[in-house]
UniProtKB/TrEMBL annotation:
Any single GO CC term annotated in Swiss-Prot or TrEMBL for this entry: mitochondrion
Record-given protein name: NADH-cytochrome b5 reductase
Swiss-Prot/TrEMBL cofactor(s): FAD
Organism: Caenorhabditis brenneri
Binding site for FAD: R100, P101, Y102, K119, F122, K134, M135, S136, T193
Residue ranges occupied by any FAD-binding FR-type domain in the UniProt entry: 48-160
């Protein structure tokens, strides 16, 4: 059964995780989504298997942000990751198995590669985490040709298009289809990753009338990942997508909000966010009324939200 509601999606500030995504439109190596699905080979055919993928390109986006491009088995392969889901990367680091979730922006329109944008948490840059991020620093150390294991798809939410979401309480549950006309997203830091994946999927389909609002929190203006991409999407689709920023330490000239996302800020942005619900942070999971939950919670018919688990 399909239900018609309003949805909030949220993503939280992540310190030790290094999830981040860079979405951009490519003029090459892309194909219409429907055609790719029909003609391309899928890489992630078994969600319990590990697929070693080689690093084929690496770009320095900023002093602590990198774009990593990993090659798929052939140029005719797609990753095979449904919108709303993520992959796990795993590696043995200092004798221990480290596993972290990542959400690529490169969609299944892209053949032959998968892109990740990663914020590298270096040692001794955060006094609370002096060792930095184990996986992000490991990725930073990779040389062209080095491999890392991908596993997926993972997650209990799939965006089907035109406002339709397939939702499961857990991996053993049967999915339910819910229909939402409005998506209100709350993201922090690298929690923008799964949000951008859904935003991009909706906006590249001119027949998808779903309305999106994003409240995005960061420490400083310079920390805002994919700022240009988000602003460009808003400019191109002003009637479908709006973004509002808040930073802990605003510059002298700043037209957006300042401070942490809390109940008061959410209430102040009530009209902007459209939806009557509040939200949270982490891998895309349904929840309701609480910030920073990581488990599925049953919602009422008119109040529903998601979060991004880091």
């Amino acid at each position: 059964m399909v239900e018609n509601n309003t949805l909030i999606i949220t993503g939280g500030v992540v310190v030790v995780s290094s999830i981040a995504i860079y979405f951009y439109l490519r003029a090459t190596k892309t194909c219409p989504f429907s055609l790719c699905k029909k003609t391309a080979k899928v890489t992630l055919v078994d969600d319990s298997a590990k697929y070693p993928l080689p690093l084929i390109e690496k770009f320095e986006v900023s002093h602590d942000t990198r774009k990593f491009r990993f090659g798929l088995p052939t140029n005719n392969h797609i990753l095979g990751l449904p919108i709303g889901q993520h992959v796990y990367l795993s590696a043995t680091i200092d004798g221990k198995l480290i596993v972290r979730p990542y959400t690529p922006v490169s969609s299944d329109e892209d053949k032959g590669f998968v892109d990740l944008m990663v914020k590298v948490y270096f040692k001794n840059t955060n006094e609370k985490f002096p060792d930095g991020g184990k996986m992000s620093q490991h990725l930073e150390s990779l040389k062209i040709g080095d491999t890392i294991n991908f596993r997926g798809p993972q997650g209990n939410i799939v965006y089907k298009g035109h406002g339709l979401f397939s939702l499961r309480a857990d991996k053993k549950s049967e999915p339910k289809i819910r229909d939402f006309k409005f998506l209100s997203m709350i993201a922090g830091g690298t929690g923008i990753t799964p949000m951008l994946q859904v935003i991009a999927a909706i906006l590249r389909d001119p027949t998808d009338a779903t309305q999106i609002r994003l409240l995005f929190a960061n420490q400083t203006e310079d920390d805002i990942l994919c700022r240009k991409e988000l602003d460009d999407l808003e400019e191109k689709h002003p009637n479908r997508f709006r973004v509002w920023y808040t930073v802990d330490r605003p510059p002298a000239i700043w037209k957006y909000s300042s401070g942490f996302i809390n109940d008061n800020m959410i209430k102040a942005c009530y009209e902007f966010l459209i939806s009557p619900v509040i939200s949270i942070s982490g891998e895309l999971v349904p929840t309701r009324r609480k910030i920073c939950r990581s488990y599925v919670r049953t919602s009422t018919n008119d109040q529903f939200c998601l979060h991004s688990k880091s």
